[in-house]
Amino acid sequence: MKLLAYPILTSCLLFTASAQLLPFAKPLKRHASEPQSPFLDPLRPAMPPSGADNTGDASAGDLLISDVMGTDSRMGIFSGFTRNIDSISSRLDSSAQNTTVLAPEDAAIRKLPRKPWEDPQDYETLGASAYAGQDGESRAQKNLRRFIEAHIVPESPWRDGQEMQTLAGNKVTCEEKDGKKMIQPGDIEVASIAKTVSNGEIWILKGVVNYAAAQ
Ligand SMILES: *[C@@H]1O[C@H](CO)[C@@H](O)[C@H](O)[C@H]1NC(C)=O
Protein backbone atom coordinates (compact mmCIF):
# COMPACT_ATOMS: atom_id res chain seq x y z
CA MET A 1 0.00 0.00 0.00
CA LYS A 2 2.72 2.40 0.94
CA LEU A 3 4.54 1.85 -2.33
CA LEU A 4 1.36 2.59 -4.20
CA ALA A 5 0.87 5.95 -2.53
CA TYR A 6 3.99 7.57 -3.93
CA PRO A 7 3.39 7.29 -7.66
CA ILE A 8 -0.11 8.58 -7.05
CA LEU A 9 1.20 11.51 -5.09
CA THR A 10 3.62 12.23 -7.92
CA SER A 11 0.89 12.24 -10.48
CA CYS A 12 -1.07 14.65 -8.30
CA LEU A 13 1.90 16.92 -7.96
CA LEU A 14 2.44 17.02 -11.69
CA PHE A 15 -0.96 18.64 -11.90
CA THR A 16 -0.77 21.06 -9.01
CA ALA A 17 -1.10 23.86 -11.52
CA SER A 18 -4.57 22.69 -12.39
CA ALA A 19 -7.43 24.04 -10.37
CA GLN A 20 -8.67 20.53 -9.75
CA LEU A 21 -7.77 19.08 -6.40
CA LEU A 22 -6.94 15.57 -7.38
CA PRO A 23 -7.99 12.77 -5.09
CA PHE A 24 -5.46 10.49 -3.53
CA ALA A 25 -6.48 7.09 -4.62
CA LYS A 26 -5.54 4.71 -1.87
CA PRO A 27 -8.45 2.29 -1.55
CA LEU A 28 -10.66 2.48 1.49
CA LYS A 29 -10.76 -0.25 4.04
CA ARG A 30 -13.77 -2.28 3.06
CA HIS A 31 -15.90 -4.92 4.55
CA ALA A 32 -17.29 -7.80 2.58
CA SER A 33 -20.83 -6.60 3.18
CA GLU A 34 -20.22 -3.21 1.62
CA PRO A 35 -20.64 -2.48 -2.04
CA GLN A 36 -17.37 -1.71 -3.74
CA SER A 37 -17.90 0.93 -6.36
CA PRO A 38 -19.04 4.02 -4.45
CA PHE A 39 -15.97 3.85 -2.23
CA LEU A 40 -13.28 4.06 -4.86
CA ASP A 41 -13.30 7.78 -5.51
CA PRO A 42 -13.07 10.01 -2.44
CA LEU A 43 -14.42 12.98 -4.39
CA ARG A 44 -17.54 11.15 -5.46
CA PRO A 45 -20.38 11.08 -2.96
CA ALA A 46 -20.14 7.82 -1.06
CA MET A 47 -23.42 6.12 -0.39
CA PRO A 48 -23.91 4.14 2.77
CA PRO A 49 -24.49 0.44 2.25
CA SER A 50 -28.15 -0.04 1.48
CA GLY A 51 -30.24 -0.76 4.53
CA ALA A 52 -27.56 0.44 6.95
CA ASP A 53 -28.12 3.60 8.92
CA ASN A 54 -24.82 5.39 8.64
CA THR A 55 -26.08 8.87 9.23
CA GLY A 56 -24.15 9.00 12.39
CA ASP A 57 -25.99 9.83 15.58
CA ALA A 58 -26.54 6.26 16.58
CA SER A 59 -23.62 4.98 18.59
CA ALA A 60 -22.19 2.26 16.45
CA GLY A 61 -21.24 -0.77 18.49
CA ASP A 62 -17.69 -1.80 17.84
CA LEU A 63 -17.17 0.06 14.59
CA LEU A 64 -13.92 2.00 14.35
CA ILE A 65 -13.26 5.41 12.83
CA SER A 66 -11.48 3.67 9.96
CA ASP A 67 -14.70 1.79 9.18
CA VAL A 68 -16.79 4.92 8.77
CA MET A 69 -14.24 7.50 7.62
CA GLY A 70 -15.06 7.07 3.95
CA THR A 71 -18.82 6.91 4.26
CA ASP A 72 -19.56 10.62 4.53
CA SER A 73 -19.57 12.45 1.24
CA ARG A 74 -19.02 15.84 2.89
CA MET A 75 -15.44 15.02 3.82
CA GLY A 76 -14.20 12.76 1.04
CA ILE A 77 -11.03 14.74 0.38
CA PHE A 78 -9.85 14.74 3.98
CA SER A 79 -10.74 11.09 4.32
CA GLY A 80 -8.65 10.32 1.25
CA PHE A 81 -5.69 12.23 2.70
CA THR A 82 -5.73 10.28 5.96
CA ARG A 83 -5.33 7.01 4.09
CA ASN A 84 -2.04 8.23 2.68
CA ILE A 85 -0.42 8.78 6.06
CA ASP A 86 0.27 5.36 7.55
CA SER A 87 0.62 6.52 11.17
CA ILE A 88 -2.78 8.21 10.95
CA SER A 89 -4.61 5.41 9.21
CA SER A 90 -3.32 2.87 11.71
CA ARG A 91 -4.36 5.13 14.59
CA LEU A 92 -7.90 5.41 13.21
CA ASP A 93 -7.95 1.64 12.83
CA SER A 94 -6.86 0.99 16.43
CA SER A 95 -9.26 0.17 19.22
CA ALA A 96 -6.53 0.97 21.77
CA GLN A 97 -6.49 4.72 21.14
CA ASN A 98 -9.35 7.21 21.01
CA THR A 99 -9.33 10.05 18.52
CA THR A 100 -11.43 13.08 17.65
CA VAL A 101 -11.02 13.64 13.92
CA LEU A 102 -11.60 17.26 12.87
CA ALA A 103 -12.45 16.75 9.24
CA PRO A 104 -12.84 19.91 7.14
CA GLU A 105 -15.63 19.78 4.58
CA ASP A 106 -14.52 19.29 1.00
CA ALA A 107 -15.65 22.83 0.23
CA ALA A 108 -13.32 24.22 2.91
CA ILE A 109 -10.32 22.36 1.47
CA ARG A 110 -11.15 23.46 -2.07
CA LYS A 111 -11.30 27.07 -0.90
CA LEU A 112 -7.76 27.03 0.50
CA PRO A 113 -5.41 29.42 -1.30
CA ARG A 114 -3.03 26.51 -1.92
CA LYS A 115 -3.02 22.75 -1.71
CA PRO A 116 -2.59 21.34 1.79
CA TRP A 117 0.78 19.88 0.82
CA GLU A 118 2.14 23.18 -0.50
CA ASP A 119 4.13 25.48 1.76
CA PRO A 120 4.93 29.02 0.56
CA GLN A 121 8.33 28.74 2.20
CA ASP A 122 9.21 25.79 -0.03
CA TYR A 123 8.41 27.87 -3.11
CA GLU A 124 10.41 30.75 -1.70
CA THR A 125 13.56 28.71 -1.17
CA LEU A 126 13.19 26.18 -4.01
CA GLY A 127 11.12 27.88 -6.67
CA ALA A 128 8.48 26.37 -8.88
CA SER A 129 10.05 22.90 -8.79
CA ALA A 130 9.72 22.65 -4.99
CA TYR A 131 7.64 19.49 -5.30
CA ALA A 132 9.36 17.85 -8.25
CA GLY A 133 11.33 14.64 -8.01
CA GLN A 134 11.82 12.39 -5.01
CA ASP A 135 12.78 15.18 -2.62
CA GLY A 136 9.72 17.09 -3.73
CA GLU A 137 7.52 14.12 -3.03
CA SER A 138 8.81 13.67 0.47
CA ARG A 139 8.47 17.41 1.07
CA ALA A 140 4.84 17.25 -0.06
CA GLN A 141 4.23 14.15 2.04
CA LYS A 142 5.68 15.89 5.10
CA ASN A 143 3.51 18.98 4.58
CA LEU A 144 0.41 16.86 4.05
CA ARG A 145 1.16 14.98 7.24
CA ARG A 146 1.39 18.27 9.15
CA PHE A 147 -1.96 19.36 7.71
CA ILE A 148 -3.62 16.10 8.74
CA GLU A 149 -1.99 16.01 12.18
CA ALA A 150 -3.27 19.53 12.94
CA HIS A 151 -6.76 18.01 12.58
CA ILE A 152 -6.27 14.97 14.77
CA VAL A 153 -7.03 15.32 18.48
CA PRO A 154 -5.61 12.26 20.22
CA GLU A 155 -8.48 11.92 22.70
CA SER A 156 -12.21 11.35 22.80
CA PRO A 157 -14.62 12.28 24.28
CA TRP A 158 -13.62 15.94 24.08
CA ARG A 159 -15.60 18.13 26.44
CA ASP A 160 -16.42 21.80 25.82
CA GLY A 161 -13.80 24.05 27.34
CA GLN A 162 -11.16 21.35 27.52
CA GLU A 163 -7.88 22.36 25.87
CA MET A 164 -6.32 19.70 23.67
CA GLN A 165 -3.11 19.38 21.75
CA THR A 166 -3.38 17.96 18.24
CA LEU A 167 -0.82 15.51 16.88
CA ALA A 168 0.83 18.47 15.14
CA GLY A 169 1.28 20.21 18.49
CA ASN A 170 -1.18 23.07 18.10
CA LYS A 171 -3.54 23.72 21.01
CA VAL A 172 -7.27 23.76 20.40
CA THR A 173 -10.39 24.12 22.50
CA CYS A 174 -14.04 23.65 21.65
CA GLU A 175 -16.86 25.77 23.03
CA GLU A 176 -20.50 26.64 22.52
CA LYS A 177 -20.92 30.08 21.01
CA ASP A 178 -24.28 31.52 19.88
CA GLY A 179 -25.73 28.03 19.90
CA LYS A 180 -22.98 26.66 17.69
CA LYS A 181 -20.06 24.42 18.49
CA MET A 182 -16.82 26.20 17.63
CA ILE A 183 -13.15 25.25 17.58
CA GLN A 184 -10.74 27.89 18.83
CA PRO A 185 -8.53 29.57 17.84
CA GLY A 186 -10.03 30.58 14.54
CA ASP A 187 -13.79 30.48 15.18
CA ILE A 188 -14.11 27.30 13.14
CA GLU A 189 -17.68 26.09 13.18
CA VAL A 190 -18.39 22.42 13.70
CA ALA A 191 -21.06 21.62 11.10
CA SER A 192 -21.90 18.35 12.79
CA ILE A 193 -20.61 15.46 14.79
CA ALA A 194 -20.90 13.08 11.89
CA LYS A 195 -19.91 9.78 13.49
CA THR A 196 -19.62 8.39 16.97
CA VAL A 197 -17.91 5.01 17.09
CA SER A 198 -16.03 2.91 19.62
CA ASN A 199 -12.65 4.65 19.24
CA GLY A 200 -13.84 8.22 18.92
CA GLU A 201 -15.73 10.75 16.86
CA ILE A 202 -15.57 12.45 13.50
CA TRP A 203 -16.49 16.12 13.55
CA ILE A 204 -17.10 17.91 10.28
CA LEU A 205 -15.70 21.44 10.20
CA LYS A 206 -16.71 24.36 8.03
CA GLY A 207 -13.11 25.54 7.88
CA VAL A 208 -9.58 24.27 8.43
CA VAL A 209 -7.45 24.45 11.56
CA ASN A 210 -4.56 26.88 11.11
CA TYR A 211 -1.99 24.27 10.20
CA ALA A 212 0.68 26.81 9.27
CA ALA A 213 0.89 27.66 12.98
CA ALA A 214 1.56 24.02 13.87
CA GLN A 215 5.24 23.30 13.58
C1 LIG B 1 -12.83 5.95 24.38
O1 LIG B 1 -14.10 6.21 23.81
C2 LIG B 1 -15.15 5.41 24.33
C3 LIG B 1 -16.38 5.70 23.49
O2 LIG B 1 -16.73 7.06 23.56
C4 LIG B 1 -15.32 5.72 25.81
O3 LIG B 1 -16.34 4.88 26.33
C5 LIG B 1 -14.02 5.47 26.53
O4 LIG B 1 -14.14 5.85 27.88
C6 LIG B 1 -12.90 6.24 25.88
N1 LIG B 1 -11.63 5.90 26.49
C7 LIG B 1 -10.79 6.84 26.93
C8 LIG B 1 -9.51 6.33 27.50
O5 LIG B 1 -11.02 8.02 26.85
- Beta-strand share of residues: 15-25%
Sheet with most strands: 7 strands, mixed
Distance between the termini: 27 Å
CATH class reads Mainly Beta
Radius of gyration: 17 Å
How many DSSP H or I helices? 7
Query: What is the number of beta strands?
Result: 7
Helix coverage percent of residues?
25-40%
Strand order of the largest sheet: 2-1-7-6-5-4-3
CATH-defined architecture:
Roll
| Mean pLDDT over the residues | 80
| Order of SSEs | HHHHEHHHEEEEEE
Number of structural domains: 1
What small molecules does this complex bind? 2-acetamido-2-deoxy-beta-D-glucopyranose
CATH homologous superfamily classification: FAS1 domain
Please tell me about this protein's structure.
By secondary structure, the protein is of the alpha+beta class. The chain has a single domain, classed as FAS1 domain (Roll). Helix content is 28%, strand content 18%. The chain is built from seven helices and seven strands; from the N terminus they run H-H-H-H-E-H-H-H-E-E-E-E-E-E. It has a seven-stranded mixed sheet. The longest helix has 17 residues. Bound molecules: 2-acetamido-2-deoxy-beta-D-glucopyranose.
